[in-house]
Amino acid sequence: MTNPLENPTANPFEIAREAAQLIAERTGVAKHDIALTLGSGWAKAADLIGETVASINAADIPGFSAPVVEGHVATIRSIALPNGKHALVLGARTHFYEGHGVRRVVHGVRTAAAAGASTMILTNGAGGIKTSWKPGTAVLISDHINLTAASPLEGATFIDLTDLYSKRLRDVARSVDAGLDEGVYVQFRGPHYETPAEVQMVKHFGGHLVGMSTALEAIAAREAGMEVLGFSLMTNLAAGIQDTPLSHAEVLGAGREAEGRISALLAEIITKL
Ligand code: HPA
Predict the structure, then answer these.
(1) Contact (Cβ atoms closer than 8 angstroms) between residue 115 and residue 136
(2) Which residues have a Cβ under 8 Å from the Cβ of 206 and sit 6 or more positions away?
(3) Is 149 left (phi over 0), alpha (psi -120 to 50) or beta?
(4) The pTM is what?
(5) Nearest of 171, 161, 165 to residue 183 by alpha carbon
(6) pLDDT of 152-175, one tens digit each?
(7) How far is the CA of 212 from the centre of ligand 1 (A)?
(8) Ligand 1 atom with least separation from CA of 124
(9) What's the fold here for domain 4-270?
(10) Does residue 202 have its Cβ closer than 6 Å to ligand 1?
(11) Of the four, 61, 87, 207, 240, which is 20 to 30 A from 107 by CA?
């Protein structure tokens, strides 16, 4: 089945509204308050934040499709939080490197906004540039540099990105763990990891984390009027900062090792939102 977002004349916001409506029907939850996209190492948070009301196969929802990367899951879960709010966990991230276009990449965010969510939590696994961070460190995203040369915004849609990664939400996160550091996330297209020279370039122009997601989704969330909380799990030192080659197995391994701890942290932060 072809994805309706691949039809260039389709309205992506219309498809997001259809998706949100079906999610409301399938979950029985008319409005979700918070949405989460859980990247490498963060998946366990879904089990810790509350009680799962419904779990839907993402591929059944308009515009979504099954993930291509081992270690990623493809369900959309509705979770009742202890404070009475509802969270939508989007387990079906489409990455820009898959080559399906930006509309597919940001569809989860747009669907979450259409489902009523005013807070978007974006998490990922990333390479770290600061040597004071060790693999397994969770880092708040303070800002981003988008090196994909793409945008989810179409036409003359001029959106302010000041305070894109909400200072208010970062302060809430630090009220749970005062030791949380923050950094600038740099999204590359991937799927290759960066060269050591690219990592040095990032370091010189003020980046601290390198990865292949999040920035485009954050822009779409801001367009939709959502407040964004971004988190990276540093799974490895970036290429050339560590002297051994990078591997997907290393990234997944660091995620597995850290996931209980960082998921518990995220779950606690969510109780304060
Ligand atoms: N680079 C890009 N993406 C990543 C990395 C990295 O070093 N680690 C985990 N995801």
Answers:
(1) no
(2) 145, 184
(3) left
(4) 0.95
(5) 165
(6) 999 998 999 999 999 999 999 999
(7) 7
(8) 10
(9) Rossmann fold (3.40.50)
(10) no
(11) 207
